Amino acid sequence: MKFVRFGELGRERPGVVDESGELRDMSMLVPDICPSTLSTNLVACVEEAGVSSLPLVSGNPRLGAPVAQVGKFLAIGLNYIEHIAEANQPVPEEPVLFTKATSCIVGAFDPIVLPRNSVKTDWEVELGVVIGRKAQYVDEHDALRYVFGYCVVNDVSEREFQLERGGSWDKGKGCDSFGPIGPYLVSADEVGDPQQLTMWLSVNGVQMQRGCTASMVFPIRRLVSYVSQFMTLQPGDIITTGTPPGVGMGQKPLPVYLREGDHVELGIEGLGAQSQRVVRWSFAAEYDPAK
To answer: 67-284: CATH homologous superfamily?
Structure first.
């Protein structure tokens, strides 16, 4: 089942996509797609009501991030062998864990805003894992039972902030707009095996990334279990799981970074596609994604 949140920024409503691809308003069933509703059996609730009984949504509304009130936005670095090679890094013995600020979360079609003083803003297509149940000290063989569903994430990164300014990676990963999510939150039962999904990203119509989740160093069940050893995962928490090769930093002979006016498109098999224009920071204050 494909869940969405649609409407103006800050006023999104919960929705679901029916079998014919039509958007239906789910707000008669739940107030939002958020921790409190993810922790219930949301899929069963919608099935019991009947998707076809829900009101159709007219027009082409903005799609926001498909999960609201995200408590933790966690990320895994260096999780694809080819990307590790292009970054000239050793294969990690344990997952590389860092955080993205929840304030960076935006919808799949909202713009990427170049931060003030940015010179190396980069792209990363990634598979996002959305937690559906409280997970603490989870065994690896049980880990996927705690996953509600999956989504596309663009782990936008400012490489100078991340790698050349000292300290942790976090300040290059959490700038405003650096976490486009969606367009859909697809339930785990519909996705099936999350380790067999193709993924891609293009910039200005040129494909830069292509990969498959089968190439992860640490698969999703390992990541969920691993993170749960250090912190309790709650419904609505998101783990974005690393990127395949082809990021801007790794381009040859010279790196390529995003500039104002660039157009980024990305997607993952079965999870939909994103599309973002790159805008300068000074324009962001005037930008209304609902228009």
So the answer is: Fumarylacetoacetase-like, C-terminal domain (3.90.850.10)
Q: Tokens standing for 280?
A: 């300068």
Q: What is the pLDDT of residues 51-91, one digit of tens each?
A: 999 999 999 999 999 999 999 999 999 999 989 888 888 99
| Centroid of chain to Cα 158 | 17
Q: What is the pTM of this model?
A: 0.94
Residues pairing with 276 in the sheet: 264
CA gap 233, 135 in Å, rounded: 5
In three-state secondary structure terms, 35 is: helix
CA distance 208 to 123: 9
Taking a C-beta distance cutoff of 8 angstroms, is the pair 264, 154 a contact?
yes
Q: What is the pLDDT of residues 109-132, one digit of tens each?
A: 999 999 999 999 999 999 999 999
Question: Given pLDDT bands bounded at 50, 70 and 90, which one contains residue 167?
Answer: confident
Domain spans, the chain: 67-284
Distance CA(57)–CA(19), nearest Å, equals: 14
Helices (H), the chain: 35-38, 42-49, 81-86, 159-163, 188-191, 220-228, 281-284
| DSSP code per residue over 91-120 | PPSS-EEEE--GGGEEETTSPEEEPTT-S-
Q: What is the pLDDT of residues 233-269, one digit of tens each?
A: 999 999 999 999 999 999 999 999 999 999 999 999 9
Residue 147 to residue 46: CA distance in whole angstroms: 18
DSSP tag of 216: B
Q: Identify the three-state secondary structure at position 252.
A: coil
Q: Rounded to whole angstroms, what are the CA distances from 103 to 17, 99, 165?
A: 26, 12, 21
Distance CA 229, CA 56 (A): 43
